[in-house]
Amino acid sequence: MKKKIMLIVPMLHQGGFERVCVATARLLEPFFDIYIIIFDSKDIAYDIKGLNVIDLHMGVKKDMAGKLLNVVKRSFMVRRLKKKLTIDIAYSFGPTANLVNVFSRRREQVWTGIRSYMDMENERKISLLCKLSDKILCCSKMIEEELAKKYNCKKAITLYNPLDVEEIRKNAEAGGPRLPWDNAEHIIVSMGREDDVKGYWHLIKSFALLQKDIPEVKLMIIGEGDFEEYRNLAKRLEIADHIFFPGMKKNPFPYLKAAEVYVLSSYNEGFPNALLEAMALGIPVIATDCMTGPREILQKKYISEGEAKAGKITGAIDADYGVLIPNMSPEKNLDAGLITEEEKVLYEEIKRMVTDRGHYEKYKKVALMRAGDFSNKAYVEILKKQIEA
Fold first, then answer.
1. Which of 14, 241, 242, 359 is the most exposed place for a label (fewest CB within 10 A)?
2. Do domains 4-162+375-387 and 165-371 have the same CATH topology?
3. Is residue 20 within 8 Å of 161, Cβ to Cβ?
4. Strand pairing report for 156-158 and 135-138
């Protein structure tokens, strides 16, 4: 008899752990009975055709009392579903889903997922997860290491997000993107929702410096949001005609493929899926050395938290699979007249990638190679081993 696995996620709107949840369901479906529980089906951005998705119809509440009541109600409903479906393992994605999962425990194994280093900021919640979870699945070795060191938690394992390289390349060929420029020679791209953590003001200011040197260069930021304050910043920098915000795309890969260089300017990440998706298309990458993600992806050897702090980079380094730059300041600054030293470093590295063809070809080649290390096959093998243990 197949084991019954419940995957719990708040929504299936555009986002990293939402994508991983759907991918997990697809990959495990041949081996187990899979049920996806969502709190709200508004604006589903992923293909869920053929998957067993159950909507609780309990969307987000803005006030604190409403949020707390929502956790209680959702936990009660999920507990009933666990009993009805005779679930063996319940695996949750994201902080709110994790709470519902542990509070709805019956006899099943409870697995919680920490998909971002920002989740580690709430020490009370992390302590609760360490106490009430049977397993904690981390998207980064650094998070696993910190759970062991700070919380004496021996339940954590690292499970990198799956990457379907062939599907990404197939989707990238599904029609040409609608760009505002004809035959743009150099397009710099970044991808992610409009969120301060992405540090897009740093990228835009660095691009403004680059645009003065290379007038034909363009910038594209793909993701959900109106980006109004960034559009205004671009106007003040007099580069508005050279920046394109195509919005959220169910298939962003034709847009991604049109780019020459990918830049991750975040000051915090969990496991940056978009960085690897760009690499799967052979796009050289430049990334901040932010907490969790880029360093583990772009270096061959895992560097522990202690080693990372001791060896914190002060300038750009040519890593094994991409270029790492020092982490960016989290202090948001939309002053067009202020360009920081860290933004100048990013500008120099983008310029080098665009103008030095040997440097570019080197990182194009190794990006493709590295993407293959994060395959669906490896992800499934680790999960199956844990499920069947």
1. 241
2. yes
3. yes
4. parallel
Question: 348 with 316: CB under 8 angstroms?
Answer: yes
- Give yes or no for residue 336 having a pLDDT over 80: yes
Cβ atoms of 359 and 286 closer than 8 Å: no
CATH 3.10.20.30 fits 165-371, yes or no: no
Q: What is the mean pLDDT of residues 176-185?
A: 89
What whole-number distance in Å separates Cα of residue 251 and Cα of residue 230?
Answer: 23
pLDDT band for position 306 (50/70/90)? Answer: low
Q: What is the DSSP string of 139-190?
A: S-HHHHHHHHHHH----EEE-PPPB-HHHHHHHHTSS----SSSS-SEEEEE
What are the phi and psi torsion angles at 286 (to 5°)? -125, 125
Q: Say what the pLDDT of residue 252 is.
A: 94
pTM: 0.77
Sign of dihedral through CA atoms 150, 153, 154, 157? Answer: negative
> Cα separation of 344 and 210, whole Å?
9
Q: 162: closest CA among 89, 29, 53, 271?
A: 271
Domain range list for the chain:
4-162+375-387, 165-371
Has domain 4-162+375-387 been given CATH number 3.40.50.2000? yes
Q: For 2, list phi and psi in degrees, rounded to 5.
A: -70, 140
Give the span between the Cα atoms of 77 and 89, in whole angstroms: 16
Tokens representing residue 154 in the block: 């021996």
Q: What mean pLDDT comes out for the span 204-227?
A: 97
What does residue 375 show for φ and ψ, rounded to 5 degrees?
-85, 160
DSSP code of 108? S
In the predicted structure, residue 363 carries a pLDDT above the cut 60 = yes
Give the integer Cα–Cα distance in Å for 181 and 11: 35
- Res. 43 pLDDT band, cuts 50 70 90: confident
